[in-house]
Amino acid sequence: DVKVTQSSRYLVKRTGEKVFLECVQDMDHENMFWYRQDPGLGLRLIYFSYDVKMKEKGDIPEGYSVSREKKERFSLILESASTNQTSMYLCASKPPGQGFAHEQYFGPGTRLTVT
Amino acid sequence: GQQLNQSPQSMFIQEGEDVSMNCTSSSIFNTWLWYKQDPGEGPVLLIALYKAGELTSNGRLTAQFGITRKDSFLNISASIPSDVGIYFCAGHNFGNEKLTFGTGTRLTIIP
Do B42 and A92 touch (CB under 8 A)? Predict the structure, then answer.
């Protein structure tokens, strides 16, 4: 069964802290994604990775960075957390290619609060 | 980046009612997808549409790929309590690994 796990369900951090959000998938997927979800704004793509050590900016990369050292793990980093980064963060993965391979498999999300 | 507009933003209905929601875009897509997010979980794919005009069902859910390729519709018949959640549309174009998601429709069932 498909499984995407995220390191924490809830996280509270202080302004200025460095924050790591971890995502692991067990499906051997090449592509992994980080989104943030805010009410009324839906899911917005922060970064994605199509292979180990490869990354590409999404629509809202400012204030974030990512790391993909192993195929199964994709980390989102907030270098200096700010209150406007309080949000739900969702990780997803998918196999490469077209055809019917559009489905992205999501983790349960990490609700981050920055105070 | 582009976002897809979903309407309505939220719905409050009674159990047994039918539900209709839609998703519109300023540009065309080759594929439309509908996801559902249960409270406290990540989104899960419900239906995928691959051809303009296509109508696809999954149990009580029916989705349509608009003729213009700029919109899609989702209907839920005879709603039940487990239909509660947020419904997202997503568009996809060939040659791109990314999906563009909609703003979401939150469905609440009033007892």
Answer: yes
Q: What is the DSSP letter of A44?
A: E
Put simply, the answer to whether B9 touches A59 (Cβ < 8 Å) is no
List pLDDT tens digits, range B48-80: 999 999 999 999 999 999 999 999 999 999 999
Say how far apart CA A10 and CA B67 lie, in whole Å: 42
Nearest residue in chain B measured CA to CA from A98: B94
Contact B33 A103 (CB under 8 A): yes
User: If DSSP codes are grouped into helix, strand and coil, which group holds residue A90?
Assistant: strand
How does pLDDT run across A57-100, given as a tens digit for each residue?
Answer: 999 999 999 999 999 999 999 999 999 999 999 999 988 765 55
